[in-house]
Design a protein that fits this description.
Blueprint lengths: L6 E5 L6 H14 L6 E5 L5 H8 L4 E3 L18 H6 L4 E4 L2 H6 L4 H13 L3 E6 L3 H5 L3 H13 L10 E5 L13 H19 L1 H6 L2 E4 L4 H8 L6 E4 L6 H9 L2
Parallel strand pairs: 1-2, 1-8, 2-3, 4-5, 5-6, 6-7, 7-8
Bound molecules: 1,3-dihydroxyacetonephosphate.
Length: 251
């Protein structure tokens, strides 16, 4: 029943220029473990094409960190789905808390971005996560449910084959403070149950749900051994080849 994919995805955020990205890929290709886990890397836009060319012979997928919701137009500084596809990208991260927080991306916009991505046959890693005050106020389950509902609940059942979810509690991102395996599992299970209610247990069982937030080589295995955690979306620890490889091996 459970055939969902194990995935380790690197989100490089605004780190690594072209030369630094190239160095990383040279080492990664050399040391990549033989694994069934899917390895995804999301570099900056400026490295996408080169990253795709460098890794195309290897089991490494290049992912974009953002997309614009319109197909084309006078949107200075933005990048469209077609542009991403033209440089080999097949998947995009949408809904990251940094986009929500620093770029004002709200539920309606994220829903539009998901629609545009799927319409253009781009897969999506959709991020959800609560802030510390929401967890302290015990509203985190409601918040996660509403983030899922507002962006993803009008999708068709078949669209879910193109979706990976990433639960990233905002208080754990870049802070060194990780959700405990139990806290993460509790939320991943809740997410899966929420999807099951809306789309059926077969859809819920087949969607990969990644954990993100201070994943490191020394905490990865405890997180990934939880039944509803299917891998990780890794920021800081994905910038260095050895720690990234150790995290891949921990799945
Ligand atoms: P860190 O691993 O640096 O906490 O970042 C997590 C993240 O935001 C991945 O998208």
């Amino acid at each position: 029943m459970n055939q969902r994919k194990k995935i380790i995805a690197a989100n490089w955020k605004m780190y690594k220029d072209l030369a630094e990205a190239n160095d990383f890929f040279t080492f990664l290709i050399d040391k990549l473990p033989d694994t069934n886990t899917e390895v995804l890397i999301a570099p900056a836009f400026t490295s996408l094409w080169n990253a795709f060319e460098t890794t195309r012979e290897y089991p490494i997928e290049i992912v974009a960190q953002n997309i614009h919701q319109e197909e084309k137009g006078a949107y200075t500084g933005e990048v469209s789905a077609a542009m991403l596809k033209s440089v080999g990208v097949q998947r995009v991260i949408i809904g990251h808390s940094e986009r929500r927080e620093y770029f004002g991306e709200d539920d309606a916009l994220l829903k539009a971005k998901v629609k545009t991505a799927l319409k253009n046959e781009l897969k999506v890693i959709f991020c959800i996560g609560e802030k510390l005050e929401q967890r302290k106020a015990n509203t985190h389950f409601d918040l996660i449910k509403s983030q899922l509902q507002s962006a993803l609940f009008d999708l068709n059942k078949s669209d879910w084959e193109q979706i990976v979810l990433a639960y990233e509690p905002v208080w754990a991102i870049g802070t060194g403070e990780t959700a405990s395996p139990e806290q993460a599992q509790e939320m991943h299970q809740f997410i899966r149950e929420t999807i099951a209610e809306a789309f059926g247990s077969d859809t819920a069982a087949s969607v990969s749900i990644l954990y993100g937030g201070s994943v490191k080589p020394d905490n990865a295995q405890a997180l990934f051994s939880q039944p509803d955690i299917d891998g990780g979306l890794v920021g800081g620890a994905s910038l260095e080849v050895d720690s990234f490889i150790d995290i891949i091996k921990a799945v």
